[in-house]
Amino acid sequence: MRRVFPKDGSSFCRMCDCHTERIEHFAECTQLKSTFEPFIKLLENYGIKGPFDNATRLLGCTRSPHDDCAYSALPNGLFTLLLILWKFIVLMLTEIDTSGLKYSADKVWRLTLTRLTERCNAAHFSFQARVRRAAVRELPPPNPSRLTKALAPLAKVDSKGRFHYSDHFLALAKHHLQDKLNLDQDPPLGEDEAPADQSTLEPIKFVKA
After folding, report:
1. Residue 4 forms part of a structural domain
2. Which of 4, 21, 36, 126 could bridge 13 with an S-S bond, Cβ 3.0-4.6 Å?
3. Is 9 domain-assigned?
Protein backbone atom coordinates (compact mmCIF):
# COMPACT_ATOMS: atom_id res chain seq x y z
CA MET A 1 0.00 0.00 0.00
CA ARG A 2 2.61 2.57 1.03
CA ARG A 3 5.32 3.64 -1.38
CA VAL A 4 8.64 1.80 -1.33
CA PHE A 5 10.29 4.92 0.08
CA PRO A 6 7.63 6.73 2.16
CA LYS A 7 8.32 10.29 3.30
CA ASP A 8 8.64 9.33 6.95
CA GLY A 9 10.99 6.46 6.14
CA SER A 10 8.67 3.81 7.58
CA SER A 11 7.11 0.89 5.79
CA PHE A 12 5.13 -0.20 8.86
CA CYS A 13 1.33 -0.22 8.90
CA ARG A 14 -0.02 3.26 9.46
CA MET A 15 -2.70 1.77 11.70
CA CYS A 16 -0.91 -0.58 14.11
CA ASP A 17 2.72 0.38 13.34
CA CYS A 18 3.72 -3.23 14.07
CA HIS A 19 3.81 -5.00 10.70
CA THR A 20 4.91 -4.19 7.18
CA GLU A 21 2.00 -2.53 5.45
CA ARG A 22 0.53 -4.72 2.73
CA ILE A 23 -3.02 -5.18 1.56
CA GLU A 24 -2.96 -8.69 3.05
CA HIS A 25 -2.04 -7.26 6.43
CA PHE A 26 -5.08 -4.98 6.56
CA ALA A 27 -7.36 -8.03 6.59
CA GLU A 28 -5.87 -9.10 9.93
CA CYS A 29 -4.70 -5.76 11.39
CA THR A 30 -5.84 -5.47 15.00
CA GLN A 31 -6.77 -1.81 14.45
CA LEU A 32 -9.15 -2.71 11.64
CA LYS A 33 -10.88 -5.54 13.48
CA SER A 34 -13.77 -3.33 14.59
CA THR A 35 -14.33 -2.29 10.95
CA PHE A 36 -14.86 -5.84 9.75
CA GLU A 37 -16.86 -7.06 12.75
CA PRO A 38 -20.25 -5.67 11.52
CA PHE A 39 -19.70 -7.32 8.15
CA ILE A 40 -18.84 -10.71 9.65
CA LYS A 41 -21.85 -10.43 11.96
CA LEU A 42 -24.04 -9.70 8.94
CA LEU A 43 -22.78 -12.86 7.23
CA GLU A 44 -23.66 -14.87 10.31
CA ASN A 45 -27.12 -13.29 10.47
CA TYR A 46 -27.76 -14.47 6.92
CA GLY A 47 -26.77 -18.01 7.87
CA ILE A 48 -23.45 -17.96 6.03
CA LYS A 49 -21.10 -20.27 7.85
CA GLY A 50 -17.39 -19.76 8.38
CA PRO A 51 -14.62 -20.12 8.94
CA PHE A 52 -14.14 -16.47 8.00
CA ASP A 53 -10.52 -15.74 7.14
CA ASN A 54 -8.49 -13.20 5.16
CA ALA A 55 -10.07 -14.45 1.92
CA THR A 56 -13.47 -13.47 3.29
CA ARG A 57 -12.39 -9.96 4.19
CA LEU A 58 -10.22 -9.39 1.11
CA LEU A 59 -11.90 -11.34 -1.69
CA GLY A 60 -15.47 -11.85 -0.53
CA CYS A 61 -15.44 -15.63 -0.36
CA THR A 62 -15.73 -18.23 2.39
CA ARG A 63 -13.66 -21.35 2.92
CA SER A 64 -15.32 -24.72 3.03
CA PRO A 65 -15.21 -26.28 6.53
CA HIS A 66 -14.37 -29.62 4.90
CA ASP A 67 -11.77 -28.51 2.32
CA ASP A 68 -9.17 -25.81 3.00
CA CYS A 69 -8.68 -25.30 -0.74
CA ALA A 70 -12.36 -24.87 -1.64
CA TYR A 71 -13.94 -21.42 -1.48
CA SER A 72 -17.42 -20.11 -2.28
CA ALA A 73 -18.20 -16.58 -3.39
CA LEU A 74 -20.51 -14.46 -1.25
CA PRO A 75 -23.93 -13.49 -2.64
CA ASN A 76 -23.80 -10.45 -4.92
CA GLY A 77 -25.35 -7.98 -2.49
CA LEU A 78 -22.88 -8.82 0.27
CA PHE A 79 -19.94 -8.72 -2.13
CA THR A 80 -21.00 -5.24 -3.30
CA LEU A 81 -21.23 -4.11 0.32
CA LEU A 82 -17.70 -5.42 1.00
CA LEU A 83 -16.33 -3.75 -2.12
CA ILE A 84 -17.73 -0.35 -1.12
CA LEU A 85 -16.48 -0.89 2.43
CA TRP A 86 -12.93 -1.41 1.12
CA LYS A 87 -13.14 1.73 -1.00
CA PHE A 88 -13.80 3.84 2.07
CA ILE A 89 -11.21 2.00 4.16
CA VAL A 90 -8.59 2.92 1.57
CA LEU A 91 -9.91 6.48 1.41
CA MET A 92 -9.66 6.81 5.20
CA LEU A 93 -6.12 5.38 5.20
CA THR A 94 -5.14 7.94 2.58
CA GLU A 95 -6.57 10.76 4.67
CA ILE A 96 -4.51 9.58 7.65
CA ASP A 97 -1.34 10.27 5.65
CA THR A 98 -2.44 13.34 3.70
CA SER A 99 -4.56 15.18 6.27
CA GLY A 100 -3.51 13.69 9.59
CA LEU A 101 -7.05 12.54 10.36
CA LYS A 102 -7.78 9.86 12.94
CA TYR A 103 -9.18 6.61 11.64
CA SER A 104 -12.87 6.02 12.44
CA ALA A 105 -14.57 2.69 11.75
CA ASP A 106 -17.96 4.30 12.33
CA LYS A 107 -17.25 6.97 9.70
CA VAL A 108 -16.17 4.30 7.23
CA TRP A 109 -19.46 2.48 7.77
CA ARG A 110 -21.51 5.68 7.51
CA LEU A 111 -19.91 6.50 4.17
CA THR A 112 -20.26 2.91 2.97
CA LEU A 113 -23.95 2.63 3.79
CA THR A 114 -24.70 6.10 2.43
CA ARG A 115 -23.15 5.12 -0.89
CA LEU A 116 -24.93 1.76 -0.98
CA THR A 117 -28.34 3.24 -0.19
CA GLU A 118 -27.81 5.84 -2.93
CA ARG A 119 -27.17 3.02 -5.40
CA CYS A 120 -30.21 1.12 -4.17
CA ASN A 121 -32.43 4.19 -4.53
CA ALA A 122 -31.16 4.71 -8.08
CA ALA A 123 -31.93 1.09 -8.95
CA HIS A 124 -35.36 1.43 -7.29
CA PHE A 125 -36.23 4.52 -9.34
CA SER A 126 -34.98 2.99 -12.58
CA PHE A 127 -36.85 -0.29 -12.15
CA GLN A 128 -40.11 1.39 -11.18
CA ALA A 129 -39.82 3.58 -14.28
CA ARG A 130 -39.55 0.40 -16.37
CA VAL A 131 -42.61 -1.04 -14.61
CA ARG A 132 -44.67 2.09 -15.34
CA ARG A 133 -43.48 2.22 -18.94
CA ALA A 134 -44.47 -1.41 -19.50
CA ALA A 135 -47.88 -0.82 -17.91
CA VAL A 136 -48.61 2.20 -20.10
CA ARG A 137 -47.66 0.23 -23.21
CA GLU A 138 -49.68 -2.78 -21.99
CA LEU A 139 -46.56 -4.96 -22.02
CA PRO A 140 -45.55 -7.63 -19.49
CA PRO A 141 -43.75 -6.15 -16.48
CA PRO A 142 -39.95 -6.43 -16.39
CA ASN A 143 -38.51 -9.52 -14.73
CA PRO A 144 -37.14 -8.59 -11.29
CA SER A 145 -35.05 -11.76 -10.89
CA ARG A 146 -31.82 -10.24 -12.22
CA LEU A 147 -32.05 -7.24 -9.92
CA THR A 148 -33.02 -9.42 -6.97
CA LYS A 149 -29.96 -11.59 -7.62
CA ALA A 150 -27.75 -8.50 -7.69
CA LEU A 151 -29.10 -7.31 -4.33
CA ALA A 152 -29.47 -10.67 -2.57
CA PRO A 153 -29.71 -11.22 0.32
CA LEU A 154 -30.01 -7.53 1.24
CA ALA A 155 -33.25 -7.02 -0.67
CA LYS A 156 -35.88 -8.62 -2.87
CA VAL A 157 -37.66 -6.94 -5.77
CA ASP A 158 -41.13 -7.84 -7.00
CA SER A 159 -42.70 -7.31 -10.42
CA LYS A 160 -44.42 -4.14 -9.21
CA GLY A 161 -41.04 -2.53 -8.61
CA ARG A 162 -41.29 -2.71 -4.84
CA PHE A 163 -38.02 -3.12 -2.93
CA HIS A 164 -38.26 -5.23 0.23
CA TYR A 165 -35.11 -4.93 2.37
CA SER A 166 -34.19 -7.58 4.91
CA ASP A 167 -34.37 -6.85 8.62
CA HIS A 168 -30.64 -7.55 9.03
CA PHE A 169 -29.60 -4.97 6.45
CA LEU A 170 -32.05 -2.38 7.75
CA ALA A 171 -30.77 -2.85 11.30
CA LEU A 172 -27.18 -2.28 10.14
CA ALA A 173 -28.12 0.80 8.12
CA LYS A 174 -30.23 2.32 10.91
CA HIS A 175 -27.47 1.70 13.46
CA HIS A 176 -24.88 3.68 11.52
CA LEU A 177 -27.03 6.24 9.68
CA GLN A 178 -29.84 6.71 12.25
CA ASP A 179 -32.08 9.60 11.20
CA LYS A 180 -29.93 10.22 8.10
CA LEU A 181 -31.03 6.93 6.55
CA ASN A 182 -32.62 7.80 3.21
CA LEU A 183 -33.81 4.56 1.65
CA ASP A 184 -36.81 4.16 -0.64
CA GLN A 185 -38.35 0.97 0.66
CA ASP A 186 -41.46 -1.09 1.12
CA PRO A 187 -42.21 -3.17 4.23
CA PRO A 188 -39.39 -5.68 4.83
CA LEU A 189 -39.98 -9.34 4.13
CA GLY A 190 -38.92 -12.32 6.16
CA GLU A 191 -35.85 -14.12 4.91
CA ASP A 192 -37.93 -16.87 3.28
CA GLU A 193 -41.03 -14.85 2.41
CA ALA A 194 -41.84 -14.16 -1.21
CA PRO A 195 -42.81 -10.63 -2.28
CA ALA A 196 -46.54 -10.12 -1.94
CA ASP A 197 -48.57 -9.27 -5.02
CA GLN A 198 -50.49 -6.30 -3.71
CA SER A 199 -52.96 -4.36 -5.85
CA THR A 200 -51.92 -0.97 -7.21
CA LEU A 201 -53.67 1.86 -8.97
CA GLU A 202 -54.13 1.50 -12.70
CA PRO A 203 -51.72 3.66 -14.75
CA ILE A 204 -53.10 6.76 -16.45
CA LYS A 205 -53.81 6.18 -20.13
CA PHE A 206 -54.12 9.00 -22.64
CA VAL A 207 -56.57 8.45 -25.51
CA LYS A 208 -57.68 10.56 -28.40
CA ALA A 209 -61.01 12.33 -28.00
Report:
1. no
2. 21
3. no
